Automatic annotation (TrEMBL):
A Pfam match: UDPG_MGDP_dh
Gene Ontology MF terms: NAD binding; oxidoreductase activity, acting on the CH-CH group of donors, NAD or NADP as acceptor; oxidoreductase activity, acting on the CH-OH group of donors, NAD or NADP as acceptor
Organism: Actinopolyspora saharensis
BP GO terms, sorted: polysaccharide biosynthetic process
Protein name as annotated: Nucleotide sugar dehydrogenase
Record carries keyword Protease: no
Keywords associated with the record: NAD, Oxidoreductase
Keyword match NAD: yes
Amino acid sequence: MEGFPLSLAVNGREHEFADRLVSYSGVQDAATGRPDTAPAAVAVVGLGYVGLPTVVEFRSKHIEVTGIDASSSRLDAILEGDVELAESDRALLSSELESGGIRVTTDSALLGAAEAVVICVPTPVGADDTPELSALRRACVDVAEHARAGQTVILTSTSYAGTTRDLLLGPLRERGFEVGRDIHVAFSAERIDPGNPDHRQQDTPRVVGGVTESCSKRAASVINCVTDSVFLVSSPEAAELTKLYENVFRAVTLAVANEFAEVCRELSLDPIEVTLAAGTKPYGFLGGFPGPGVGGHCIPCDPYYLLWQLRDRGSRAPLLEQVMHEIRQRPQQVVRRVDELLREHGQRSERPGVLLIGASYKVGVADLRESPALPILSGLVDAGIEVGYHDPLVPRLELPDGTELVSRQHPDEEKWDLVLIHTVHPGVDYDWVIDYPLVLDATYRFDRVPHRLLL
Ligand SMILES: NC(=O)c1ccc[n+]([C@@H]2O[C@H](COP(=O)([O-])OP(=O)(O)OC[C@H]3O[C@@H](n4cnc5c(N)ncnc54)[C@H](O)[C@@H]3O)[C@@H](O)[C@H]2O)c1
């Protein structure tokens, strides 16, 4: 597709393969912004960080939406409006729940009423770094059980290449459906960035890979309701691997950014200054910012889906293995640096106190999943350090050993030996930190403290 701004570090040759990129062009209704082939009713299975905004996006195109979630407490939270959505989306959700344009339920039997089903359940990794597919398996069984002829089923959870075929085709065929004729099946990964208003779903292109060509087209017409640009690939596997490649690349970038920050410290240079300067090059450089580690269910988890699949086939990706090793041990580097700074500044008393600022892994969201703050706090405790944290978005948290911590409400009135900046949320008053003599800024961005120290 000539002219589409591809994000590739290839020195101006982005369009060498332009004719290989297949874009889907649905005809959109000018008034509703909806493709003319849009389904009248969609069901979204899994109403978490990604599924719920997707429900709202479909509804904003006047499509009837049924949201299905296995957790009744999640449904209660949704009905009470206690959810992580942009203010405008929260208002739309509330009014549509009232008018019936959106309904939410735990009852998978309602799946049968939808013309299209979007599966968006969690795909974390287990303790041994293998895919934890129980939620996805369960959801696929439910979807297949209630599927009906004419439906389009789109798996959107991130997973290994082959998941859509493995988990959906068998049960659908057992029910007598011929995929591509009676029912349409495709994969199209979510690319939503929860809590980031800069990337709206509508403006974020999606990739669709169907089991057959007609599956791709049907699924693209559904996905085209929530985004303006849809690209088609030749199979669900190509679409599945596309998503893993995206997040593998993010993992590599972040690991390199962290390593480069240490290079900068060694050379007494400012890593942010150097990163920004490198970023002025209009081609060939795609950098990231360093930080205390990587959190969420994407970057710390998704690459393991690929490593697991390769291992299973007797193959390997050694560079990626090394990157994931570096990412995993980053929180311990933070712990070692805290210990080092306490010693250097004569604060390594019997039981020094360290306050961590911002426990969630991401700015502006309450999400604690895989947050580096958890292993950092645990590591500090193991090192004989007394810990506390302050995060207005995370009132309490549990460390892996079961220890419960409560967010300090008035950290400015307490005395800590070192303040560790982990995540800085917008709209929170951090001015009191400026007076602290020992501040370790693991975000590299808190330059309000002139004497801050870096990792
Ligand atoms: N969060 C992100 O930033 C992000 C971005 C892009 C892609 N993804 C991917 O999207 C998928 C969903 O992630 P999320 O962050 O929304 O997860 P989440 O944990 O926030 O929410 C998932 C929801 O699914 C529900 N659920 C679990 N099993 C179910 C089942 N069998 N039937 C119905 N509901 C079920 C849970 O109760 C929960 O409410 C994952 O594969 C993730 O990797 C996430």
